[in-house]
Fold:
Amino acid sequence: MSFLKSPRNLTIIALISILSACGGGGSDPTEASASDIAVGTSLSGPTPFISFLPINGSSIKKIIRYDYTIEPLPGSVSKPVHVSYSPDALIQKKYLTGGADTMTMPIFGLYAGNSNRIKILLRFSDNSVQEIDTAISTPVYVDPSGVYDHVNILKKRTENDKIDFDYFLMKSSTNGPMVVDTDGQIRWVSPLAINAYSSIFSENKFIVGDADSTDIHIIELDGKIANTVLNTTNYQKFHHNIDSGKNALLGEFNTLVGGEDNLESTLAEFTPSGEILNQWDFAAILGNYMSSNGDDPSTFIRPGVDWFHMNASTYDASDDSIIASSRENFVIKIDYHTGNIKWILGDPTKYWYTFPSLRAKALNLNADGLYPIGQHAISMTSDGFMMLFNNGAPSYNQPSDKPTGASRSYSAVSVYSIDTTYMSANNIWNFDYDKSISSRICSSAYQTANRSTIISYATANDGSNARLVGLDPAGNVVFDFEYTNKSTCSSSWNANVIRFEDLKIM
Structure:
């Protein structure tokens, strides 16, 4: 099939309608072959990566699924963007009205500054399919920060590389969420320029917690934006990450307790609508535990001081628990319901280890293992192991006369198996990139089900750059992209996989 060249004003031309029809029987026409569907002139979206395609025809009433695929640019290795919509989803988003002869199909993931070749598949109730080939031309994207449109590709992915993802999300403090493919091409940018440190992609939308308040911003892939607020009075603002919880989302918050600032030591499970389902005050959890076990917590827990510095959390379904990262001290696991401490894993040369009650909960690490120090991005792998980005930095906010712990000249990705029967931890895998990169703060590493890994070295080269590195299941580097940091951690404080190659909006 050949495509006519579209002008750059986002005009779309339908070239071939009713290319194929299948699923019918005998000589009777299928719903696809009898379709009167046609596409109209597209409307530009809020960014060059989003467009809206009108579809017309009485046959719309018989469509049960809408799919589109964006053909990759020549030389690309990443799988094409492929999105499926159900009629119910399009009705809910107000792009389709039941019984109407017209609808609008949101198309996102487009290449900027290109004539995008699009294949649309319309599946009818008799399971026959109508295929429409079209083209959408988009304007050039100019990044206002001058960062993401100037990627330095240190290692390019090749077609022989085996990696289990093709797109990843970067959390920018200036541009909001950014989606890039594994060829280094930008494929989606937020229409709302916002600090996206506290954010997550959940249920096909970005949930962003405000860095200065308890506002929640919901950014849809079609560019629509909604806002709500956390239903609480003593929470002050979001900070650091948002992770997946047991029933909803896990977020870190600054709170005001008894008139005192509780800095970066409160975790809550909340819904995107702002309802708080559960919360864990680590100042209270640790303080009560230490007191009941003979220690004075007053010199360890210091209200108004960033003594805990929680930066990530995760839910472990294997024993119904929460694992939290305290950058200043350790990784800690608590019971989801009671908050009782199950174990602590951290550098024994830090201040926390001088308290006998905390030391009693410490896991013993294998002799050649790397303790988590300055760690970020706690997660559970598909094998049930704990994974984290092991920054290698000592404590920054301990009392001046107290030990700050070890320091490494490099950062690593570390995976641990935990044996609670023997209170031991085994550091079963590390990736240290030949000890060539140090990222002292921020950063992340997350793994797919087949052990492919996306790493964000947020402050490489003494903080001047972010490095986005993809590993195959064997730990080989598949790609390595470098971005300039305009400020600390600004380009990619955290990064994770996003499935633009097979996204179902149902």
Observations:
- The first strand starts at residue 38 and ends at 39.
- Residues 1-25 have pLDDT under 50 and may be disordered.
- The two ends are 30 Å apart (CA to CA).
- The CA atoms of residues 287 and 480 lie 44 Å apart.
